[in-house]
Structures
1.
Amino acid sequence: MLSNRQNQILKMIVEYYVKQAKPVSSKQICKKLKCSSATVRSEMANLENEGLLEKTHTSSGRIPSEEGYRYYVDHLLEPKKMNGEDMLKLQIIFHNQSLDLSDCIKKSLQVVSDMTSYTAVVLGTASHENLLKEVSVVPLSDSQVIVIIVTDKGKVEHKTLNLDGVNVADVKKTVDLINKLVVGTPIDEVSAKLEFEVKPIIGNYVFQHEKLYDAIYNVFNDFVNPDINVVGRTKFLEQPEFSDVTKIKNLFSKLDNDDLIREIKHDNSNNIEVYIGSENSIDEDVTVIKTNFKSSSMDGTIAIIGPKRMEYDRVMSMLEYIKENIESDASS
């Protein structure tokens, strides 16, 4: 366990480095702690020996190691209230009655990304409490239709299908059959019901049933798979840690990988969770701060991805505020 003075020094180094993105010298610490430079250098050396600080090749100063950030988050981070400007910008979004919840979440994360210069992610799915209310179809042409799915909680999903050679009348028969047999089913159970109750009999009603069934089955499958929205990918270009072209290209390819992004939601914790460097599935040079949420209409995960040199307290307070506003929808 660290001494009080070591805790102070490590906390100061993390917070200075977050702000200035430059190694922190013993002189900066001395001015604040009002003790000798020799004492501070000795303590910094001890913290380096503990694996909590690192010395760069280009400076005599120190920067936090991955273990140093973890120790800071676990032991030294103090809860921070959102400042008035941050809160006001998010309040405006959640108080906008013309926006549905999904849009509120996306817009709030866009605001957070703009304010922090970090990347934001939302993964959302229709919650189990959503029951299928209606499936409808709108013909666009002889070969193209829009399938619209509506739940009892007001969540709407639509998808344009190209169905060359399929009679529009057959499409309507299929939709009528689904409405007759599947309406009232929890949305995440619809695919199974289609497979076991609709698929065996659809051939009795529809001529080209295989092509049509597969297309509509895929619409429902997309509905229950997480929507992925990544906001502010290019914010990493503003971070000095990612000035290397190879590094940034590698990171961008990972942010475009839906399977990697889905791994952000790998637990069911309702807390704010922090995954630093090697602890996350995205990249060892980033930190992922995330939380899961649950409202009456959707479940999901919101996350902020930034350099390990991140404003941890500010980001955590923003995510907590957004989560509370999302979940107030479930209790109202």
2.
Amino acid sequence: MKELQLKYGCNPNQKPSRIFMEGDRELPIQVLCGKPGYINFLDAFNGWQLVRELKKATGLPAATSFKHVSPAGAAVGLPMSDVLKKIYWVDDMGELSPLACAYARARGADRMSSFGDFIALSDVCDVDTARLIKREVSDGVIAPGYEPEALELLKAKKKGNYNVIQIDPDYVPDPIEHKQVFGVVFEQGRNELEINPELLSNVVTENKEIPDFAVRDLMISLITLKYTQSNSVCYVKDGQAIGIGAGQQSRVHCTRLAGQKADNWFLRQAPQVLNLKFVDGIKRADRDNAIDVYIGEEYMDVLADGAWESIFKEKPPVFTREEKRAWLDQMKDVALGSDAFFPFGDNIERAHKSGVAYIAEPGGSVRDDQVIQTCNKYGMAMAFTGIRLFHH
């Protein structure tokens, strides 16, 4: 198959629409179920590249949750604590495979953004992963293969209309890529830069110690950024992205946005949130939305009389700003990657508030000394990679 007709492009008015291969090559995918659209394929192909690189870099199964051509979450298949299982709503599923753990982490880090995601898996989709996907609101999945029972589970999703794509894991694209904007063709070499530990060897801070777990997490952050719309920064802890700031014009706004997401991830693990008692039958999305509001500044939207009764069995106490800050002060050993240099130390100040201890960024700013000085103030270890990872 050399081409696939699509219903429409980015928007319903953009017709005709198709994906196709030039020359004699065939498309490297098969659609096993559903009718993926233009944006679905953009998410699928970017997501597949991300998880393929995560698997190569770490040796672990990887998953990502994509929305609007940027990852909402990305993770490798490490075991989860009981607390993580609970906040990701998988504590009722028993022991999960490494691939399922990777997707639970990728989906669970930012459940608000992952709602209606497109999933990419580095390995053949197993039954555990399919069971997890089946109960989430999602547009589709791409993987190098599917176990027969897993495929049947996915085909039953959305009344048989769930998008299931199989990609040839041996497919290698041409080294030169093209795209067209306003009738003008752009050409560039593909970004084939390998993210590896050598990129983290130039540690420019007083603290030179970057332990193995932080090297892994920094590589995860950089690989994630490689497929995130720029400007972008990515906070990572324990093998998973916990906050991704994408597509902001100002880098400090990326750092703040991603930092707030990382904070929310950690606040969801606080006893005040774990002990919330929801009414029976509440939908998963409504539960996620209520938690997001409860830990935010607009908490009275769910705690006001006449509002809380439809969400909680009993009215929760206010999670005060002081209590939240005290809890966040316990977050440690977070890794932070940036797709371009930090121009000011204010980015480091914000990162410190979210427990960042390890940083990877290209370097090259005229204010590198200010950024390094701010890192030294907090005892952070920062590596200059010398490489930029813009993605548009």
3.
Amino acid sequence: MTEKVTESIKFLMSEIKRLLKKEKEGTITKSEIETLKSLKNFLGKN
């Protein structure tokens, strides 16, 4: 169980990093922006 939680958190963090990189490059889509906002809110990174 703990391993699955750890993997999920690692995935979420890597997804945030990927989306932040796309945002910085200016190649992010509207749906990715919404996903990034949701992930930031979920993880408390406003």
4.
Amino acid sequence: MELFTPDFGLIFWMFIAFGILFLILWRFAWPMILKSVDQRADLIDKGVEYAQAAQEQLANARRDAENYISEARREQAQILRDADKMKTQIVEQARVAAQAEAQKVMDNARLQIQQQQKEAEQQFRNRVSDFALQIAGRIVQNQMKQDKAQQQLVDSMLDEIEKNN
């Protein structure tokens, strides 16, 4: 039973040993432990600050990336609008040029048709006049076979010459 009921001397020496151990720990170990705990707390605080700074940087980077993406989309839309305008202008210019060219071709065709018509009319007139001259020549030749008709022709021509002078 002695184990369950210690003597007064044992308790006294245990308190003295505990006090000395407590003083040694308090004097030497406790500051080191507190210093380690403070360093560890500082390290944890710095880690938290670093994590918060990294999180803010990540949020800023995401915001910047979203801004760049939205700006790129706006520029893409603007480029597409400009390309569509350019396409429309090019098509319109080509249409106008094609119309102008078609008008030139039509005008040239009209001029050629008119010239060919005039040439055809002139050829027709020339042929008709040739036929008329041939017919007149044959008629005059038939009439000139008679001496009296020849005399009348010469007289009428002389009369016309005298009237003109």
